[in-house]
Amino acid sequence: MLTGPVLESHRTKVAELAATNRLPTMYPFPEFLKSGGLVSYGVNLADLYRRAATYVDKILKGHAKPADLPVEQPTKFELVINLKTAKALNLTIPPSVLGRADQVIE
Length: 106
Known about the structure:
The chain is α/β, with parallel strands linked by helices. The chain has a single domain, classed as Response regulator (Rossmann fold). Helices cover 44% and strands 15% of the residues. It is built from six helices and four strands, in the order ααβαβαβααβ. The protein has helices at residues 5-9, 11-20, 31-34, 45-60, 83-88, 95-100; strands spanning 26-27, 39-43, 77-82, 103-105. A four-stranded mixed β-sheet has the order 1-2-3-4. Helix 3 (31-34) links the parallel strand 1 (26-27) and strand 2 (39-43). The longest helix is centred in the middle third of the chain and has 16 residues, at 45-60. The chain is elongated, with a radius of gyration of 18 Å. It starts with a helix and ends with a strand. 16% of the residues are buried.
């Protein structure tokens, strides 16, 4: 599922509709899993914010000019699986996938 301000503000309703219609869903952020989503895979926002703060620090201290700093891409992605939702959907998550998960919600 794509995300945006409207969908994020209604994430519980989206997760409920998916569960009611027995649709497995994949989200970009783990916050959706707390609302009943099945799987999330995406960037670690805390890591992105922390890395951005190092750029802000360099700029504010005068150690670097914004134009001189390289553009960075995300490097840390996280896979989170909600086993409670998987069970409700009668899905079995293979052990190989569970082993790769950064977090498993039971």
